[in-house]
């Protein structure tokens, strides 16, 4: 198989659910993606062992959201609440997936949330998360599970509070490397599922590099019959690059290689400041589906 021209296959999508508004935003986006890409959807609910252990403390109290009243909390009551949340998440998944005619499944596991989510994501093509969960503070723009997922090498889609907006252009960074070539193919797949518009941000240090990158990215995108717009930015200036990204009205930003363009501090700033859904790809040669297809073809 010619990997340079293989499809950016997204066929298995995992969505982590906790019945919070942010995870339900992730669910809607995952169902929409699965429907448009004919992908299978797996919903995962994690019974958080930290909450269960906390409920065993004699000092544990439940604060009611609307009244601010406190009530004693024990393990049995916490388990009951987790079961109720899991059932709420399962019903939401079933209703959304069946309405969109998407093949779906649902699992409940018990453990540390981040550990279990990442374990379930192994072998999936995409992990979809709301940026925030129940545990996030009102000031925080990214939850602990999302932060952990970003630090891994797996492809992660982090949803903004507005969800995935495929009626807006897809923004993709391109520097000519294999990782960003794959990012362009994924961006094309997303754009074809939406408004058919892509903005390619060329990371060029000079005019000659910009011309070369424009020719390469244009070839990858126009073969998909997409409307393509180009912008250029100097990758050596992280602050200017961030300003350029923030100035674009995009439905999703695709980055091939999470730390290729940003040092850790700048990447954290990107996650907190850019009000756009972010698709962060890893550095390797493709999704598990792509690798399986390549292995089958090579035999």
Describe the protein.
The longest helix is centred in the N-terminal third of the chain and has 25 residues, at 75-99. The protein has ten helices and twelve strands. It folds into two domains: 3-50 and 81-155, HUPs (Rossmann fold, 3-Layer(aba) Sandwich), CATH 3.40.50; 170-281, Rossmann fold. By secondary structure, it is α/β, with parallel strands linked by helices.
Topology:
Elements: E1 12-17, H1 21-37, E2 40-48, H2 49-55, E3 61-63, E4 70-72, H3 75-99, E5 104-111, H4 113-121, E6 126-130, H5 144-150, E7 156-159, E8 170-174, H6 178-192, E9 197-203, H7 207-222, E10 227-233, H8 238-247, E11 252-256, H9 264-273, E12 277-281, H10 288-298
Parallel strand pairs: 1-2, 1-6, 2-5, 6-7, 8-9, 8-11, 9-10, 11-12
Antiparallel strand pairs: 3-4, 7-12
Helix pairs in contact: 1-3, 2-3, 4-5
Shape: elongated
Distance between the termini: 10 Å
> Could you state the order of secondary-structure elements as H and E?
EHEHEEHEHEHEEHEHEHEHEH
Unreliable segments (pLDDT under 50, ≥5 consecutive)? 1-7, 134-139
| Named CATH architecture of the largest domain | 3-Layer(aba) Sandwich
Total number of helices? 10
Structural class: alpha/beta
What is the strand content? 15-25%
Task: Please give the radius of gyration in angstroms.
Answer: 20 Å
Regarding CATH, which class of the largest domain?
Answer: Alpha Beta
CATH domain topology of the largest domain: Rossmann fold
Assembly state: single chain
For the biggest sheet, the summary is: 10 strands, mixed
Overall pLDDT score? 82
Strand count: 12
CATH superfamily of the largest domain: HUPs
